[in-house]
Amino acid sequence: MASQNAVTEGTPARPRRQARGQQRIEEILHAAAAVFGEQGYDATTTNSIAKRAGISPGSLYQFFKNKDDIARALAEHYATQLTALRAGVFTIENLDGAGLEDTVDAVLGPLVAFNLAHPGFKALFARTDMPAGLRDAVTPIQVTIHHRVADLIAHFMPDRALDDIARIATVSIQLVRGMTPLITEADGPERDALTAELRTAVISYLSQQVARVPQHTRPRAARA
Amino acid sequence: MASQNAVTEGTPARPRRQARGQQRIEEILHAAAAVFGEQGYDATTTNSIAKRAGISPGSLYQFFKNKDDIARALAEHYATQLTALRAGVFTIENLDGAGLEDTVDAVLGPLVAFNLAHPGFKALFARTDMPAGLRDAVTPIQVTIHHRVADLIAHFMPDRALDDIARIATVSIQLVRGMTPLITEADGPERDALTAELRTAVISYLSQQVARVPQHTRPRAARA
DNA sequence: CTAAAATACGAGCAGATGCTCGTGTTGTCT
DNA sequence: AGACAACACGAGCATCTGCTCGTATTTTAG
Which residues carry the record's DNA-binding region feature (chains A, B) (predicted)? Predict the structure, then answer.
């Protein structure tokens, strides 16, 4: 956005990255994701991230202001990948004619896969009590996610009040967030079973909500 | 390690408490619950607990071995009160003839009230990623809770396999745990609304599970 | 009353953690 | 080639946190 060249002084300490630096940044984020996923955010030390990335602490701080800054960058990284995921799989247009179950499947499947592929994700997003710095880093992205889910839900209950929709979206997200650590920490068949349980929980909750106002809505969720 | 007591050597460093000390212990636990609830477990310092309790750090460590020990004692304190709660409200015998909805209500209502009355509770139990010390402190009690919930659930689906029952109990508990922080942090009417949503989610999830095996079970959940 | 145990104090230690700083190396631009 | 910026290093600083220790006071036991 702002001019990063030497002439203007808009962003003081923002160096012009070279290719090496860009790669380092990605290596650091990769290492941070791994360590966050294994140890949790609080227990993760910046020195351990540097060690994991194969660099010195000093080098790390050439690319990131502090620990929260790493979390913020990683959160944005995840947000970007989630956006790509959405574009590829569960666009609203693609699901407009689909039923509730198919929609939930279309969202939940890739989301679980994403959590398994990116162990750091749940460490940043699936916590209920966050330190202030982490909270600031992830809330904007949580708001974005909430908007998308609310849009999706609104399609199935168009005559509900907006704050009802918002609340149902919040609850749905929270159901998923609560189950995610259980799923990622389980192995093989138990993991599949828990994923199926999550699917059941979300679908039955949302079905109940759809059925709640049967006048205007056509509650035939399974077939369009 | 050396025995400082005269006669028996059963519990080496366990002094014979006087009335004053017992009261101090309760004051410390009360203070710890408050600070845990406000700051979270990690952010809470032992010195801040001592300050809140109106004593010096040295005095605190005359009654508790370390920070985890405080958490463990507080967790046991909560477990005791929960047991009293169960005895008073939702004994299995009392609910044997009741339907699923009434049973869930009988559990969820007092449980939410308990969470509101004891702000430290969710800081100890409602976290998904716990430091090792805290995990050790609360897991025994979580196992107890899980047993009780599984017993309750088993009454509604007697022909399900034991690990199915266990998994359903785990998921149910997780649904409640995930929603608890949302509920306690909300105010007035929004809190009530979220509580109602939690009720809906749990009941619809469990109803779905009860309906899944209709052969042997009599799925007349609402009326006995 | 007296000795021992329990309670109380609070300055401060040992260890850890996020982060810095001085210095040296690599890359880029002219 | 020279100059400057980006990159890299790692010992170590400043700070915090859980906890201790020497000491003083209160309570209990005999």
Answer: 45-64
CATH 1.10.357 fits B67-211, yes or no: yes
Mean pLDDT of B97-108: 91
H-type alpha helices, chain A: 19-39, 46-53, 57-60, 67-88, 92-95, 100-117, 119-125, 132-154, 162-185, 188-211
Rounded Cα distance between A130 and A134, Å, is 6
Q: CA of A135 vs C1' of D11, distance in Å? A: 33
Distance CA B198, CA A175 (A): 10
- The CATH class given to the B19-60 domain equals mainly alpha
Q: Could you tell me the distance in Å between the CA of residue A47 and the C1' of nucleotide D12? A: 14
What six digits make up the tokens of A17? 């990255």
Q: Read off the pLDDT of residues A115-166 as tens digits, 9 standing for 90 and up.
A: 999 999 999 998 888 889 999 999 999 999 999 999 999 999 999 999 999 9
Supply B182's token pair: 């949302």
Listed by start position, the domains of chain B span 19-60, 67-211
